[in-house]
Amino acid sequence: MADDFVKAVEDGLKLSKRLYFGKDRPVTPPKVPSSMDKSGAVDMLLPKSPMVYAVITDPKIVDNPDIPSYQPYVHGRCDPPSLIPLQMNAVELDVDCYLDTAFVRVSGTWRVHCVMGSKSCDCRIAVPMGDQGSILGVEAEISGKSYHTQLIALGENDGAGKSASVETGSFLKPNIFTLTLPQIDGGSYLSIRLRWSQKLSYRDGEFSVNVPFKFPEYVTPAIKKIPKREKIHLNVNAGTGTEVLCNTSSHHLKQLRRDVGKLGYSYESEVLKWSNIDFDFSYTVSPSHIFGGVLLQSPSLHDVDQREMFCMYLLPGTAKSRKVFKKDVIFIVDISGSMQGKPLEDTKNALAVALSKLDPGDSFNIVAFNGETYLFSTSMELATKEAVERAHQWIGINFIAGGSTNICAPLTKAVEMLTNSRGSIPIIFLVTDGAVEDERQICDAMKSRLTNGGSICPRIYTFGIGSYCNHYFLRMLAMISRGYYGAAYDLDSIEIQMQKLFTRGFSSVLANIAIDTLKDLDEFEMYPSRIPDLSSESPLIVSGRYQGKFPDTLKAKGFLGDLSNFVVELKLQLAKDIPLDRICAKQQIDLLTAQAWFSEDKRLEEKVSKMSVQTGVLCEYTRMIIVETDERNNASESPGTKKGSKKSDHQKILDSEVPKTIMLQNLGIGFGDLTATAENFPPGSEIPKLPEVAEIFVKAASNCCSTLGNKCCCLCCIECCNKLNDQCVIVLTQLCTALACFGCFECCSNLCCCGQDGQ
């Protein structure tokens, strides 16, 4: 899908060369990347900041709405449609950072500068987001019309609004959301507000936020006299009640306020060109030692859950001399047929880096699986230089994609090998791109074995590749074992994301974390239910709900790397200016969805759905809709303005007040695809669908006619027709009529049937 988008933008940039802006132009016409460097072109043309594109199906409408260019007439249509980036007249960025989450709002004004004033086109909004971004909402106002997105429960309002095609709303990539607004007049101004959340990066006690804010040169307005004002507002509330220090900033921010645990900055400037760098900001919170706290907050009146809220955080600090755990590590890697090519090669590279990071005192093993199980060694091997070298050779020989997928056997074997681990932390890394039928049975078996195990049970770190594996099964497996879950929905991010998960598993500084006094609370729930280990690579956030009086003092205890006991007192404070429900929403929804899948509990699914609608965070049990409100109809249609039947006037008023809705296709990742796994479809590929009979005939007729047209000239056709007898003429006429009927059928299907799931 990303390649198709890039090709459409490339075609759109070529079309935009038809536009004439006079001599008063501050920027050069857009340059189309060379097709010789495909990877560079894809990287250059994918949006790296909020963008809006004109969707052009008819190239004849491309022109400056203010100054006609009188370009030569263009024949034909754009199939698929071209995308012309719209020029932006103003932009404002607001970033609010709380704990480990950033909430981003972007407001901007774009103009349909490339379509005749008498014509209209669809406009596609692209929203690139940062690390683990989650779209929260889109609002737009255009010439008396307004649009906004909202979430509804699955099954709600079915049939009330028309269904949309994939292009209307979908994820171009896991971190790029696109939404299409219908039929915007040429020359119109679009006022758009975008909202999303993303995770902060953490390293050595330093938090950092990176927001895509790199605008290409060709979105700068082509008229110098138009003022271009760029605004940035940043608020930091660490929630720790400790001093916060600013480290670096990509833009020249002016400090507005500075309180304990809080920072406020702003930036505003008249610019000639929009920002060509992302917005980066980093700050330090934690001291050199492990510390934490608990934030308490009461629910709002409209909250679907009226229990009290709590959020516990632990920060690993910056101490470099802290002893890390000795590790017993088993890598379980899927080598089924669908892993062939880039997925398996990137997995090999990430595994090679992970092996190089093991200490000589650590032990390891490697298990490859498809329908069978292949062991590097029958027992754990010390991570000596010779053993690691033999492992590289074994990987090169045995990591050959082929066969089916069987997860249970290798996972059971790995747990058995780590059962007797002493003086170390046992870790299993499971990498797969497929779904299997016995996933719930696997979770049941692991839950029974791991919860009844020794003092430190094996941690299972799961990693899912693509959309065909069941990511909620992998998340559930990690939660049961106090491990972590990672994923790469995009093939280009496999190696990077896998290395992050490996590094996180190798850097645990506090294990078997427990807080006993919380269990005495009424109606107590905690997410995740089993607290994972604290890693030096990221803070640990645990949230939940409760009834009753929260303890006055709270302590967290666990094991350090030298297996000594560790206790840290958690500071309690009321979260006055921190939206706990929004900060914890994504984590809670994902974990509860995994539990709902595992338990097949419909009431839990309904609970997740209500949380999703309330917080705006997408889930598997909600759908996003576009609500269109036409304020012009509301203003023009009022009682007594027109003479006629009272019933018809009243009905017109009611119709104008009812907003139109467009239901987007499901934006969730789903619960795996057993068919795609069984057929070994590679990650990122689409399951082939057989075309309809009418489509086959239309394409065949179109290809036939185009081929004949290319082979014949007008004079040859005239001479040939003169020599035809009457019967041949009749047959030829009937053939042309049949082809015309097929063309009419295609046109009618596009006009009348496009609302039915895009078909």
Automatic annotation (TrEMBL):
Region spans: Disordered: 630-651
UniProt cross-references to Pfam families, sorted A to Z: VWA_3
Domain of life: Eukaryota
Gene3D superfamilies, A to Z: von Willebrand factor, type A domain (3.40.50.410)
Protein name as it appears in the record: VWFA domain-containing protein
Domain VWFA: 328-513
Listed InterPro entries: VWF_A, vWFA_dom_sf
